[in-house]
Write the structure tokens for this entry.
Amino acid sequence: MPPSSLPRFRSMLAPLALVGLTLPGCSELLTEGGAAGAGLGGAAIADVVGAGATTTTGIGLGVQAGVRAGLHYAQRRAHAAAQDRIAAAAGPLPVGAVAAWSITHKVPIEPDERGEVTIVRVIEAGSIHCKEIVFSVDATSRPEEMPRRGFYTAYVCRDGQAWRWASAEPATERWGSLQ
Amino acid sequence: MRRCLALLLLAPLAGCGLAADLTGAAAGIAAGTATGNPAAGFAIAVGTRAGVQAGLNWAVRVRARGEQDAVAEVIGSLAPGEVRAWRIEHDIPVGNEDGEVRLVREMVTPLATCREALFSISEGKWFVTTACRQEGRWKWAAAEPAVPRWGALQ
């Protein structure tokens, strides 16, 4: 690709970045779009500096894979923070009591959420303390994404002084589109 | 051409998960060959892949939601001790499932009424899940696993 066509690549990146910014809740589009955009940038630069076809593709794919891994890491961190907030709200509650929870992300990679949480039952086994919870997601920073109140069930367990999310992953037979 | 053939041969082995990669690769190889420009080929490959992947994931999720709604609806209609059948018939008649649902317990909380139930899929495998009543209907309520247990899920 001649250097003169680099701006054209930039103009292709801009809509991708825009899509990523306007729909950060659509994490899949963000990941795919962001990684693809970064890959394109990497390939475009490699091509401009005169790398061959194989090197260009290799650099593009490498950058794309790196950015995708980075975005997944950021999404997992943001999601872990949300789970921690719900678990922290549920931790001190007795069965039947209701508390509010909310999460505001520093980086808008996942939607801000708030809701309530209540305890269904306490599960005690020796030194292991766990609780079954029902929590609601009442609103997000993008109301069009979840226009109604949703209720969900999960487990939290005590880890030292803190309470942590304890629901295990679904059976591999039930993964379906998760991977 | 030979590379395309190899990719095609891989497709049935890999299942649905590689479809986006293969479509992207095929589009990229075609574009790269046609234009003689590796960067253009790469751009078309990753662009196609991203689009196809997002579309595929959306389609698979819509189907999974249909299945969850079918099970949750039966969970909501169960009386204690009752066994009922559930069935999902997709618009595209591939992967239709059916099985049985049994109520384990009802959880009445200040927030919502939820139920824990056992459900089976056709081969007789049993699973436990939860459903909660929201806005007049029953919806699947099992929340996502803890992030440290995600592993390869993402």
